Amino acid sequence: MKTLIQSIRLTIVLTVLLCIIYPVVISFAGKFSKGKGNGETITLNGKIVGYANEGQKFDKPQYFWSRPSAVGYNAAGSAGSNKGPSNPDYLKEVNSRIDTLLKYHPYLKRSDIPADMVTASGSGLDPDISPAGAQIQVKRVAQFRKLDEQKVAVLVKEHTEKPLFGPEKVNVLKLNVALDELK
Amino acid sequence: MNPELSGILVSFAITLLIGIPLGKYLAKMFAGEKVWTDFMKPIENGIYKLSGISPNQPMDWKQFLKAMMVINSLWLVYGFFVLMYQDKLPLNPDGNPGMTPDLAFNTIISFVANCNLQHYSGETGATYLIQHFIFMFLQFTSAATGIACAVAVFKALRDKTTADVGNFWVYFVKSITRLLLPLSVVVALILTFNGTPASYAGKDKFISLQGDTVNVSRGPAAQFIAIKHLGTNGGGWFGANSAHPLENPNYVTNITEVVAQMIVPMAMILAFGYFIRRKKLGWVIFGVMAVGMFMLMIPTISSELGGNPAIAKMGVSQATGAMEGKEVRIGPMATAYWSTLTTIVSTGSVNGMHDSTMPLTGLWQLLGMMINSFFGGCGVGILNYLIYLIIAVFISGLMVGRTPEFMGHKVEAREVKIAALITLLSPFLILAGTAISSYVFNNYGSANWAVKPSSWLNNPGYHGFSEMLYENTSANANNGSGFEGLGDNNIFWNVITGLEILIGRFLPIIGPVAIAGLLAKKKFVPESAGTLKIDTVTFGIMTFAVIMVLNALSYFPALALGPIAEYFSMLK
After folding, report:
1. Residues B377/B385, Cβ–Cβ less than 8 Å
2. Model pLDDT, residue B402
3. What whole-number distance in Å separates Cα of residue A8 and Cα of residue A24?
């Protein structure tokens, strides 16, 4: 009984320390970070058009597309496809994604397509694509927007991030915002 | 050098740079020697006073375990009811509903036991109050429980003959104030300044460039993610865990999180050596564990970089490796590196979906959890290893025909019986659990549960079997990761894994503490020429062999039916 009362009292004391003081202090410190602790947003013409770190659905021809997503880029949830590597239905789906890409990019060979453009990400909210994934879309985007292909290619190059550690990547939202700002 | 390879090498180097000194610090701090964090003493004394605890009271191993069990049971009961009625409590800006009783049962056990298997999704299944007051609270306290029990074993093995294993409350509180809380502050700050949300704001809504209306889940996540890794808990704030771009926004946070989950388990091994004044033994154990880790890690990385052979046949380029279930900013190499560490140290957080990894990767992930003592969880890793050590001492003793001795005490029937039972417990829970799951799947496909057994599996064939094997293994190992395609939020999985987690957590803690307590009470036998030297490389290899043989014998048939069969079926 004595141990139980000690346990209850210790639980209350630690709750104050760990669940109130600690998170509130961090939350306060977060106010001084880039997104004020709410997540960093991106604006175009004064309007919030998305979160820098969260991918969004891009499948219209005037934009660079993002990766396939198991949750359709619904950021109120998150999930991967959880399809196993040998699942026949899954492999069919990948094949049909390749066909779709080839249909909209008739100038491509299969071997030009990087795997990230035909596979779903872990979160379903991947904000990035590989540089190769962006490069293969340059011609389509330029043709649709009637822009100089070279100009779009330069834009992709500018938006290719090469961190000291970790893979190279292109943030799709930032690239598309820059694209809309071109005019 | 390839920036992905240098990325994981840097991660590992930072882990060693922090883990090794941390081990020395922990040994000194728990032994009560002077350390630089002594400025926390007034706060600790305040905590003891407010809780009515006398920190100087010695405890024998039974009193120690009683205190541990009472406070853990309290959290189980209190948390269960709070989870069920979370919708009626404050701090619920997204209007999430209460949990069903079976889900609350599973979830509370899972967090009390440091497992963090999640059959709910953070965005829609838990309010901010629950995330902080129950989950984050338990992420601190479950890690501290494991560490406290390990320190009791350290003390029992250090002292020549004693009944006193130390005061549970003191080890427990100091684990929080001197280790977990300060490190959490550092990690949480790194995360929030790299883009992880830390404010209490609820969901946001905006209109995307293409004109879609998008809702965005947020919340005070950085605080939670810090301790989720430091305490080897692993439960995600968001459903996608550390694959989520707010939970793990860039490569810097990825390194931070993967380092955070390794340092305490690594430090505890070295702390053991320093604490019992057998530095060399600490390093031998460390070496065995590191070898085991690399044996799992190198083939994992190679199988992920190789890409999916079935997709290779379609002719697309897999220059970066297998990408299904992975994030571009993290890449397959860092995902593979993480997947090995998270399965050996029982964190169970993921930065890519394990269900979509290659068959052999799944094999190494499963094996890491089955062995569960290559570094292992906070505190419990060394406790699991201790069981293997006792078995190795016993077998070595039999081979040379001497009464086995361990740390100056005779190892007799009682201790070996406990060790043997704990060793048999894991295969029993994992294999029986998987057998029952498969039986229900095959024979009661249309049972009227929240998810019908016939639609449990997200993948057919061998991989579907692996999903069930993985779930049972993860529960028993208190790991918490999953082949998440499994439809697990229903009464069957909630109850069976809940029980597996509970038994798989507390018996492997009680066993080693009891063994150490029993040994410590025995007469001290000074070392002689005939004593088996356990701090040698030879004995390290012996222990490694014991681990391998026990696990291979226990699990090979099950593994052959799952990942190994899938691997060979894809070679065609």
Report:
1. no
2. 81
3. 23
- Using the CB atoms, write b or e for B448-481: b if 16+ within 10 Å: ebbbebeebbbbebbbbbbbbbbbbbbbbbbbbb
- Closest by CA to B464, choosing from B384, B562, B386, is B562
Is B246 in contact with A163 (Cβ distance < 8 A)? no
Contacts of A55 in chain B (CB under 8 A): 245
Rounded to whole angstroms, the Cα distance separating B435 from B429 reads 10
Q: Check if the interface score ipTM surpasses 0.90.
A: yes
Whether the pLDDT of residue B572 is over 80: the answer is no
The Cα–Cα gap between A81 and A90 comes to 9
- CB within 8 Å: A34 and B315: no
Q: Cα(B307)–Cα(B324) distance, rounded to whole angstroms?
A: 9
Give tens-digit pLDDT for B35-69.
999 999 999 999 999 999 999 999 999 999 999 99
Number of C-beta neighbours around residue A2 at 10 A: 8
Taking CB atoms and an 8 Å cutoff, what residues of chain A touch B204? Answer: 38-39
Q: How far apart are CA B190 and CA A29, in angstroms?
A: 11
* B218/A7 touch (CB, cutoff 8 Å), yes or no: no
| Cβ <8 Å between A78 and B244 | yes
Claim: this prediction has a pTM higher than 0.90 = yes
What stretch of H or E contains B213?
A: strand B213-216
